[in-house]
Specification:
The protein is mainly β and 257 residues long. Helix content is 6%, strand content 56%. The protein has three helices and 21 strands. Strands 1, 15, 16, 17, 18, 19, 20 and 21 form an eight-stranded antiparallel beta sheet that branches. Pfam families: Cupin_2. InterPro entries: Cupin_2 (IPR013096), GPI/OXD (IPR051610), RmlC-like_jellyroll (IPR014710), RmlC_Cupin_sf (IPR011051).
């Protein structure tokens, strides 16, 4: 039986306004604009955080190795290069990078405009067990990745706009289930409920509204809506429709009935 408090939970709503200015992210020189849209303390699943970030032309988000988390970079606007284990790959709106445990990644702005992207970071299963005070159970070891041109790579690049959705299980060992882009035609509606999984959506274009926990919030580009376990939302598109980035993370031990 679910707890009454969980059943009454509403959505977490944030947008990209009021971002912080941070210098030297991951050891790189220069400025990064950053804002946390949802974090682990507000959710039941093994999220670390849902974040928005941006760097100016010529800026770099420094290369770093993932040892305890798995992470998504999704490009929203601008042009740049993903740096994956020392190799540069083009990054443009719709580009998606899945970075697994053991991989090294970074991001460079090579364009003339600001480069904006979403970051979704999840705890690897062994990390999640330690944070719960448990001895890590045996998990699939994907830290060695695959070999490409003599380098070990545990990452995947995708064009999410072309593919529509991506199954991250080929790289990630944790509970992230799906990543995709969905659209609502003008006047269309969609219901989301976090019962055995938690959802986060980010408005890419268009406008609309969401009703959650008796509260109605407007949806415009740059708005994030995250549903903790037990929360639900009815999303409706206005006359210009809605385009949403959507990620879903399973929470099998805390299902809400």
């Amino acid at each position: 039986m679910s707890e009454p408090a969980a059943a009454a939970r509403g959505a977490l709503v944030a947008d990209v306004s009021g971002a912080a200015d941070i210098h030297g992210v991951h050891g790189a020189a220069g400025l990064t604009h950053w804002k946390c849209l949802a974090s682990r303390r507000d959710l039941d699943g093994d999220w670390e955080a849902v974040e928005w970030a941006a760097i100016p032309p010529g800026g770099v988000s420094g290369e770093h190795r993932h040892t305890r988390t798995e992470e998504i970079y999704f490009i929203l606007s601008g042009r740049g290069e993903f740096l994956v284990d020392g190799t540069a790959h083009p990054a443009r709106p719709g580009s998606l990078l899945l970075t697994g445990v053991g991989a090294v990644h970074g991001l460079r702005n090579t364009g003339e405009d600001r480069l904006d992207w979403l970051v979704i970071e999840m705890l690897a299963p062994s990390t999640a067990e330690v944070l719960r005070g448990r001895t890590p159970r045996g998990t699939t070891d994907r830290t060695t990745g695959r070999t490409t041109e003599g380098k070990t790579v545990n990452a995947e690049l995708h064009d999410l706009r072309a593919e529509g959705s991506v199954d991250p299980s080929g790289v990630f060992t944790g509970p992230l289930r799906t990543v995709g882009i969905s659209t609502l035609e003008p006047g269309a509606t969609r219901a989301l409920a976090s019962r055995t999984s938690e959802h986060t959506v980010f408005v890419l274009s268009g406008s609309g509204r969401a009703v959650s926990g008796g509260t109605t919030v407007g949806l415009t580009p740059g708005t994030a809506l995250t549903l903790p376990l037990g929360a639900s939302a009815d999303i409706a598109a206005d006359g210009d429709g809605l385009e949403l980035f959507h990620a879903e993370l399973a929470v099998p031990d805390r299902a809400v009935q």
